[in-house]
Amino acid sequence: MHEVRRRPAKSDVSMDTHAGELTLKPYHRHHHDHRDLQPPTSVKASDALPLPLYLTNGLFFGLFFSVAYFLLHRWREKIRNSTPLHIITFPEIAGVVCLAASFIYLLGFFGIGVVQSFISRGFHDSWDVEEDNNVMIKKNGGGCTPAESLACTLAPVSRERVVAPTIQEPFLSGDDEEVIKGVVSGTIPSYSLESKLGDCKRAAAIRREALQRMTGRSMEGLPLEGFDYESILGQCCEMPVGFVQIPVGIAGPLLLNGTEYMVPIATTEGCLVASTNRGCKAIYASGGASSMVLKDAMTRAPVVRFGTAKRAAELKFFVEDPANFDTLSVAFNRSSRFGRLQDIKCAVAGKNLYMRFSCSTGDAMGMNMVSKGVQNVLDYLQTDFPDMDIIGISGKPSAVLHNFHFWIHYRVMYTVNDSVFSICILSSSGNFCSDKKPAAVNWIEGRGKSVVCEAIIKEEVVQKVLKTNIDTLVELNMLKNLAGSAMAGALGGFNAHASNIVTAVYIATGQDPAQNVESSHCITMMEAVNDGKDLHISVTMPSIEVGTVGGGTQLASQSACLNLLGVKGASKDSPGSNSRLLAAIVAGSVLAGELSLMSAIAAGQLVKSHMKYNRSSKDVSKIAS
Q1: 434 preceded by cis ω (within 30°)?
Q2: What is the pLDDT of residue 76?
Q3: Candidates 131, 512, 545, 594; catalytic one
Q4: Catalytic-role residue among 351, 467, 536, 610
Q5: Looking at the predicted structure, is the pLDDT value of residue 156 above 50?
Q6: Dihedral sign for Cα atoms in the order 327, 328, 329, 330
Q7: Per-residue pLDDT tens for 69-106?
Q8: Would you say residue 409 has pLDDT above 70?
Q9: Contacts (Cβ under 8 Å, ≥6 apart) of 322
Q10: Are 113 and 410 in contact (CB under 8 A)?
Q11: What is the pLDDT of residue 55?
């Protein structure tokens, strides 16, 4: 595996190879070899087509989907009318022929290149590329000699519009410098390095070096080594150039439902781990906390449109009719072993109908799972409501759809204009779910796991560990978390700092950090009990969205944190139990954080502790001088 290094050189490019290690000396991005070189030309198979390639592709795309729709519509009518399927008319015969012809064309255009990319991935002896600026990097042994091959990559090129892009082959050269120059000059797209090189780490190193040369800014300090770039390919991050280090601290033990947990907290905020740890200590000394998962249901809400509001209302009544629920459930559940429809709530806005589907998702966070089930139901409803116009489905493209879109964009850039992009644009939520946005529907109905966690803190613990008293805490909670949040018009923000704990645990365990928006919905309650001698504290969190499989949970660091909590992967004995336990631990951690921070505010310790633990110990005046 090649390692890219920077050496303090000014303009020359040279390569030193010692024991198989490639060392690069930076060059100035505007340096060119001024030999009179012309971009090579080649005869393409597409030159024989009567139409430009992008029009031909568009024609066959349109033919394929229109004919497929025609045939499906005709067969559905035959099934309805009990007409034998083997009796076909001349238009149907023509449709089958057109479908087969368009399928063969599209398979030949796309499929061959994919097969070739897998076959030739392991070979790195020569390479050629043609991209949207009509530049061809020639193979060694072609028109340019090996010594001239580098100059060929930097030759002046025509900026004419691309008419016929050719099939692109994986890089087969072991020369990183040529690839870097290609990325810098724009002849090699940065996003395609992984598929062309077949080495994710090498691709990241090349992309990183090219980025430094293009921007003129160093990325020293951003680590490259020590990360498995194969693990994020196609599912976690595109075009990586390194990874960000976030320290992980441990708070605990958190005694929750009779079991001790050491909670990983990934943060750069001083005092957060120490404060949460103190809350855990107070809870432990008082006998522990208890939690209950009230509801477990991920939601997705497509929006459909009709010609009249009456038709939208008719579908609303149909979907919400208990007599139709079992039929809709069968359609919904067929795409997943774990996704099970629980409820559908509808809202009408003029001619538009918003349908909020709720379903269990096992140990996955489950938005893609719900989206597939919702699509099944919409396909079923389309039969009885053919005038239904589906506007949006899923909040984000599934992994398959995303990879398909990425591959199509790579293979036929500019050949079908923006039609590929419309797939993802239309696959958007109706925002009645609601995902990654503060919304009353999540605060009231819940989304993901709805959890309540409580503890009774003894008076001596409040005084000795938390350094305050019960009456002061109860009054502060009322004035700050309840009345103060109401004055601010808070939506689900009736707490001191629930989002601090939620986000830190999410990052450590591989959850989606953006979902801290609704997952941090929390109301903190405090009350004096047992004749005022003890403190009852609780947090109610209706929208904790977590999973223990999929997404970032499969990365090594995040997987280790999940393993520390005993919730790594899917539960084989009771599907969904690991994700529910993780949600309960999140709520318990929030309870500890709320208890400690409120106590610090009540005792006047907040500013003092932050000045001690959240400030740099370096002399800033000396650093500035």
Answers
A1: yes
A2: 81
A3: 512
A4: 610
A5: no
A6: positive
A7: 888 888 888 777 777 777 788 888 888 888 888 888 77
A8: no
A9: none
A10: no
A11: 76
Q: Examine the residue annotation and report whether 269 is marked as an active-site residue of this protein.
A: yes
> Could you tell me the pLDDT band of residue 62, with boundaries at 50, 70 and 90?
confident
pLDDT band at residue 380 under the 50/70/90 scheme: very high
Mean pLDDT for 465-469 is 96
The answer for residues whose C-beta is within 8 angstroms of residue 517's C-beta and 6 or more apart is 436, 437, 438
Catalytic residue among 138, 201, 372, 436: 436
Q: Name 622's bridge partners.
A: none
How far is 520 from 502, CA to CA, in rounded Å?
A: 6
What pTM was computed for the model? 0.69
- Reduced to 3 states (helix: H, G, I; strand: E, B; else coil), residue 320 is helix
Task: State whether residue 93 is helix, strand or coil.
Answer: helix
Please report the beta strands in 147-231, taking only residues with DSSP state E, as ranges in sequence order.
none
- Three-state DSSP class for residue 218: coil
Is there a catalytic annotation at residue 34? no
Spatial CA neighbour of 464 closest among 603, 297, 302: 603
Q: At what angle do helices 556-565 and 577-602 cross, to 10 degrees?
A: 80
Exposure string of 54-67, with b = 16+ CB inside 10 Å and e = fewer, is bebbbebbebbeeb
Phi-psi region of 366 (alpha: psi -120 to 50; beta: other; left: phi over 0): left
Q: Dmax of the chain from CA atoms? A: 94
Q: Catalytic one among 92, 269, 320, 527? A: 269
- DSSP three-state, residue 236: coil
Residue type, 177: E
Kindly report each contact of residues 136-144 with a partner whose C-beta sits within 8 Å and lies 24 or more positions away, as own/partner: 136/39, 136/40, 136/41, 136/42, 137/178, 137/182, 137/187, 137/188, 138/40, 140/173, 142/40, 143/40, 144/37, 144/40
Is residue 436 flagged as an active site residue? Answer: yes
Task: State the Cα–Cα distance between residues 522 and 589, nearest whole angstrom.
Answer: 13
Residue 2: count of CB within 10 angstroms of its CB: 18
For residue 419, what are its two tokens?
A: 């039609």
Q: Taking Cα atoms as reference points, which of 513, 535, 519, 531 lies closest to residue 589?
A: 519
Tally helices (H) and strands (E) across the chain.
23, 13
Catalytic site residue 372? no
619 residue type, one letter: D
Give 541's strand partners: 451
Query: Among candidates 543, 505, 491, which has minimal Cα distance to 298?
Result: 543
What confidence tier does 551 reach under pLDDT thresholds 50, 70, 90?
very high
Contact between 339 and 366 under an 8 Å Cβ cutoff? The reply is yes
